[in-house]
């Protein structure tokens, strides 16, 4: 009896590799997005802390005000970065989903082919058993 061999196994292997690559790209995009969110939260906390303690002298107040303005600018930049990271994450997720869908469709074909092969082997074995039984009865 011959061993099962899927005709498109190399294509299936390639699609599995593409799916893993897309999954890794999504994981990295998700991590970058979470990192940007965490940095944003830290900046907001830093701003809230800075707003609690204004300077006492005019010079300290001017430095404090400049610092607050710089923090607000950095927060705006971080918000823009978060939006970019979210878009990258969504794109990576869509790519991963498409790669998974492509792999699953080919995997389903492989499963169907293996099932057909199993039925054929079972049929062949049953035929051999039937032949053996008939020969055994004729021998008696």
Helix-strand layout with pairing:
Layout: H1 9-52, H2 58-139
Helix pairs in contact: 1-2
Describe it:
This protein is mainly α. Helix content is 90%, strand content 0%. It is built from two helices and no strands. The longest helix is centred in the last third of the chain and has 82 residues, at 58-139. The mean pLDDT is 92.
Element order: H for helix, E for strand: HH
Ranges with pLDDT <50 over ≥5 residues? none
Strands, count: 0
Q: Level of helix content?
A: over 70%
Largest sheet, strands/sense/barrel: none
Give the C-alpha Rg. Answer: 32 Å
Give keywords:
single chain; 140 residues; mainly alpha; 90% helix; rod-shaped
Task: Quickly describe the structure.
With 140 residues, the protein is an all-alpha fold. It contains two helices and no strands. Helix 1 packs antiparallel against helix 2.
């Amino acid at each position: 009896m011959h061993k099962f061999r899927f005709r498109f196994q190399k294509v299936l292997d390639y699609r599995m590799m593409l799916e893993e690559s897309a999954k890794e790209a999504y994981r990295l995009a998700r991590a970058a997005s979470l990192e940007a969110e965490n940095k944003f939260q830290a900046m907001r906390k830093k701003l809230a802390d800075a707003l609690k303690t204004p300077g006492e002298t005019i010079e300290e107040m001017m430095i404090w005000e400049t610092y607050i303005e710089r923090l607000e600018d950095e927060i705006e930049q971080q918000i823009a970065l978060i939006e970019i990271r979210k878009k990258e994450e969504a794109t990576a997720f869509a790519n991963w989903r498409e790669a998974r869908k492509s792999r699953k469709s080919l995997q389903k074909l492989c499963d169907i082919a293996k099932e057909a092969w199993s039925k054929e082997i079972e049929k062949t074995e049953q035929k051999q058993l039937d032949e053996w039984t008939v020969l055994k009865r004729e021998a008696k």
